[in-house]
Amino acid sequence: MPKKDSFETLAIHAGQAPDPATGAVITPIYQTSTYAQEQVGVTKGYDYSRTINPTRSALEACLAALEGQGIDGPTYGLAFASGMAAIDTLLKLVKPGEHVVASNDVYGGTYRLFERVLADYGLKFSYVDVSNPQQVEAALLPETRLVWIETPTNPLLKISDIAETAARIKNKNSQIKLAVDNTFASPYLQQPLALGADFVVHSTTKYLGGHSDVVGGAIVTQDATAYEKLKFLQNAVGAVPGPMDVWLTLRGIKTLALRMERHSANAMRIAEYLSHHSVVAEVIYPGLPEHPGHQVAKRQMRLFGGMVSLVLKNGAAAANRMVASTRIFTLAESLGGVESLIEVPAAMTHASVSGSPLEVPGGLVRLSVGIEHVDDLLDDLEQALKV
Ligand code: P1T
Questions:
Q1: Domain end call among 224, 253, 282
Q2: SS3 (DSSP) at 348
Q3: 206 an active-site residue?
Q4: Residue 340 sits in a domain of what CATH number?
Q5: Catalytic choice (206, 262, 302, 366)
Q6: Same structural domain for residues 146 and 235?
Q7: Are 106 and 112 in contact (CB under 8 A)?
Q8: pLDDT digit string (tens) for 146-200?
Q9: Which residue out of 181, 198, 245, 380 is catalytically annotated?
Q10: How far is CA 74 from its chain centroid?
Q11: 174 and 162, same structural domain?
């Protein structure tokens, strides 16, 4: 067996051999909706771009290689128009009357999709603290088909032990699938399939794209049967990304490893700085030894990532003042780009969990730490916390 290439090499080359038609080193943007057929049904493998597009196929192969780096055997990737489109398509494997155990700390849009869209189609959801694998196990019902976790979670950065969660689920019922939303870690920091997950989901909008210039999503699996169903759904439902969007994502992925190193180093410095600040009640970062998931994160992640959350002593009013006072950190939703962002989840990304059992504290501030010089970022936070 030839040795597998390293992550950095796969990120640049997987699925991206020079274009067979021209030798172009960079995968072309096949900006076409349809393909000429020599005779009815005689194609070069491409018939219609909702079904298949060469630029999209390159991204799908690259994502499959990155998430599959740590495992033997093939992996399969599918790209979608957004993270939400990927999640919605995956949830179509669950039928009315069936049950999903989900994290009680998830992206607000995921909760909204589950509770305000899919629940109307007869899917049932329970929300538990998935950082406790025993709680996940205890929530499994005879009709449970899927367990949905984020790790780290959005926005409270809780850590789930993927391997232990997978083992407990499979031990109880091998038919139950485990899906991990790997958006916050990216495949450079964490590869859930190698730890026993059945599906990895991404908002590629974030670290994979990496430059805040494109919205997209993805699913990766080793399960060939599930892949065929999902590929059918990708085409049948049609939430596919366009060629320009997948090309931007491919370009972003080439520097993923470098970016994640810098995001993580900057975030660690910022978390340490904030944890000594007098107006800060709590800093949440899996890289800090006092984080309850630190040991698990150390085991299953290469580094601790670029997301830092903090709770201010003076609550929502202080949080709102801080986010309006930064100069380099831009007040905006989203995360994972090269530039630093700051937001108040309760009023922004997680407004859709307000009033629900998943409500997040009003004084919580979430930082997406970028790859600017860390001294500038520290100065910026220092002056914003004085306001
Ligand atoms: O925005 P979209 O590409 O559709 O992805 C949705 C999504 C899925 N999963 C996680 C963990 C996410 O964080 C997101 C999107 N999150 C934000 C926009 C945010 O600011 O948290």
A1: 253
A2: coil
A3: yes
A4: 3.90.1150.10
A5: 206
A6: yes
A7: no
A8: 999 999 999 999 999 999 999 999 999 999 999 999 999 999 999 999 999 999 9
A9: 181
A10: 21
A11: yes
Domain end point (choices 218, 253, 288): 253
Choice from 107, 200, 208 to test ligand 1 binding pocket (greatest atom count within 8 A of CB): 107
Q: How far apart are CA 269 and CA 41, in angstroms?
A: 58
The model's pLDDT over 335-366, given as tens digits with 9 standing for 90+, comes to 999 999 999 999 999 998 999 989 999 999 99
Q: Which pairing describes strands 217-221 and 280-284: parallel, antiparallel, or unpaired?
A: unpaired
CATH of the domain at 158: 3.40.640.10
Domain containing 317 equals: 256-385
Hey, what are 206's tokens? 């974030």
Does residue 2 lie within any of the structural domains?
no
- In the chain, the number of structural domains is 2
Ligand 1: distance of its center to the CA of 278 in Å? 31
Residue 338: other Cβ atoms inside 10 A: 15
* Cα 274–chain centre separation: 25
Report pTM.
0.98
